[in-house]
Design a protein that fits this description.
Elements lengths: L2 H8 L3 H11 L4 H26 L11 E3 L5 E4 L7 E2 L9 H11 L11 H14 L9 H9 L6 H17 L2 H11 L6 E2 L1 H9 L8 H9 L13 H17 L5 H9 L14 H10 L5 E3 L4 H18 L6 E8 L4 E6 L27 H11 L7 E4 L18 E4 H6 L3 H11 L1 H10 L3 H5 L17 H12 L3 E2 L8 H9 L2 E2 L3 H12 L20 E6 L5 E7 L3 E8 L5
Parallel strand pairs: 1-5, 3-4
Antiparallel strand pairs: 1-2, 6-7, 6-14, 8-9, 10-11, 12-13, 13-14
């Protein structure tokens, strides 16, 4: 009788006491042996459960956080705290091909054993005794997971502990979850762990995008990660890969043509740097969602790449004029999703503070707030596009604004004053509307920095005497494109956030005012198109506005149509 059972009997616990007495009754010896065996099995199970409770298996690992685009492409990958590339592989990314290849190679009986394969252990013991050294292993996939979770020196005592941990894993997790753990931790040399990190750093792919040849090549590296280095030993990897592809064919694991194609596939892979697109955006998402290891964003990888390339090309020419920084944001007006986010033209330009996030930086907006002021004036009945206003020298209690070109137009329509971005008519409108009324409406449109500094605001704010960010201006102009309905920008690709954003909609202009503002801004002549309108008939119309801050420290250009809003800032983060 086991010690545990005896303890319960001695304590006179009724159930165990009755069961023990019943087992002692004289019966058929075979039946008695069966009862005895069941009792021993129950005792072992109880002992296992007690030890499992005292020494629970821990599988929580730190994974490298990923920031991904809307189509799940990796934009930016962060190292773990222990400086490992260990990326979480989801169950959906474990394709049948990947699963079959790994299981066939590492543990053919994975789905039929309880974590330990007695036949494999017996075979390994016999072979090792015959050769007098370790020639064969008996580790199942589950045992390998246990060893990677609890790395210890290789000896018989630790092997027994590893076997117990394997039983624990099988007790607590499904086979697919154990395979997932294995694929998340399997070593690929250096600081690369897991099939997802290997697929990304070697093939620029996610696990579910790998070909059979790539899967097989990755499956053989963990056995000798230091001897089989991708990019150094590709010929040896190809030879071993093809050996295993032949074994797959002998076992009928995959279609013959698929295996033939896999054997002919070249291997040119080598280790590359982790993805580093949209760095300021990625850092922002990482700080905003510190507990998320896989952040799916609204960024369109293709648009992001195009914006990055165009800005880099344009910035090279601007450097001749001592302009070193730029920022761009692209918004989908239909749902306010951010499709591209460029915080600076060159993140690695330390000489010019390239790591500053120009999308969030507070800068003087120049004339970019004027359309909002004019729209509010339309809604309040203060003016219409055809109302006349005098553009003449005016003194507002000591404040004497001037136009950009230092000229005056005399009587001019409100529409023309906005098209020409004249300063004096804008200040007159703000004076009639009221600074605090304008500030309150800006607050409704998401300009929190202006609201926080409302006590310092005066008439000069309409000419740039306040601090705004590029993202705030993009959200404002997206509201013009949506009949005056404002929504915060949308960063994550999740249905829950979309619903929350829709619930937070605020009407900042009437549809009529938004329409009139858009029509006025559409009539501006674009500098990138010929002056003859007939030459630009097939070009989509864009409503757009520019702005230049005092001292020419900031240059803005914001354009929108029904589908997109694109906001651009140029200048120097130093304020030069």
């Amino acid at each position: 009788m086991c010690t545990v059972c005896a303890t319960f009997v001695s304590l006179k616990i009724p159930l165990f006491h009755t069961t023990f007495k019943w087992l002692q009754r004289p019966r058929n010896k075979w039946l008695h042996r069966l009862y005895k065996t069941c009792g021993i099995g129950a005792g072992i199970l109880l002992l296992f459960l007690i030890i499992d409770l005292i020494f629970p298996v821990r599988t929580k690992l730190e994974y490298a956080p990923l920031v991904r685009s809307r189509d799940s492409a990796v934009l930016y990958a962060f190292l773990t705290k222990d400086e490992q590339w260990r990326m979480f592989t989801t169950l959906e990314e474990i394709t049948p091909e990947l699963s079959k290849a790994i299981i066939f190679k590492e543990d053919k009986y994975f789905y039929s054993h309880p974590g330990i394969n007695p036949a494999a252990i017996g075979r390994a013991v016999i072979q090792n005794l015959i050769h007098g050294r370790r020639t064969s292993g008996a580790s199942t996939i589950t045992m390998q997971v246990a060893r990677m979770l609890y790395p210890k020196k290789r000896n018989y005592v630790n092997k027994l502990i590893e076997m117990f941990r394997a039983l624990q894993l099988e007790f607590h997790f499904s086979k697919r979850e154990i395979l997932q753990l294995y694929l998340n931790m399997v070593p690929y040399g250096s600081n690369i762990q897991g099939v997802k990190a290997a697929a990304l750093l070697y093939f620029h792919k996610l696990p579910d995008q790998l070909s059979l040849a790539e899967i097989t090549a990755l499956s053989i590296i963990p056995n000798r990660p230091n001897a089989l280095v991708m990019g150094k030993n590709n010929d040896r990897i190809i030879a071993l890969r093809n050996i295993w592809l032949n074994r797959f064919e002998d076992a009928g694991l995959f279609l013959k043509q698929t295996l033939t194609d896999a054997r002919q596939e070249p291997l040119t892979a080598h280790r590359t740097a982790a993805p580093r697109q949209a760095p300021q955006f990625a850092l922002r998402m990482r700080r905003s969602f510190p507990s998320s290891q896989d952040i799916i964003t609204t960024i369109d990888a293709g648009i992001q790449q195009k914006v990055t390339e165009l800005t880099a090309q344009y910035s090279q020419a601007l450097q001749l004029h001592q302009i070193h920084n730029a920022a761009v944001i692209v918004v989908d007006n239909r749902n306010r999703e951010v499709l591209a986010y460029l915080g600076s033209a060159d993140f690695l330009d330390q000489q010019h503070a390239g790591q500053v996030d120009g999308v969030r930086a507070l800068r003087s907006p120049g004339s970019t707030l004027k359309p909002f002021l004019y729209g509010l004036a339309f809604d309040k009945g203060i003016a219409t596009p055809r109302s006349m206003v005098s553009d003449i020298p005016t003194d507002f209690n000591g404040y004497r604004p001037e136009n950009y070109d230092l000229n005056f137009r005399g009587n001019i329509s409100i529409g023309d004053a906005l098209r020409q971005s004249l300063n004096i008519p804008a200040v007159k409108l703000l004076n009639r509307l009221g600074v605090m009324e304008f500030v309150r409406n800006m607050h409704h449109a998401g300009f929190d920095a202006v609201w926080n500094a409302r006590q310092k605001m005066g008439l000069s704010m309409i000419l740039g005497g306040c601090g705004v960010s590029l993202e705030s201006l993009a959200a404002l102009y997206a509201a013009f494109a949506n009949q005056g309905l404002y929504q915060p920008l949308h960063w994550l690709k999740s249905p829950q956030e979309t619903v929350a954003q829709a619930d937070s909609s605020v009407r900042i202009l009437s549809p009529e005012s938004a329409y009139m503002i858009t029509e006025i801004l559409r009539e501006l002549q674009r500098p990138d198109l010929p002056n003859a309108n007939v030459s630009a008939l097939n070009i989509p119309q864009i409503a757009w506005k520019t702005g230049t801050s005092y001292g020419r420290r900031d240059a803005w250009s914001i354009g929108y149509n029904q589908r997109y809003t694109i906001a651009v800032w140029l200048g120097n983060f130093s304020g030069q």
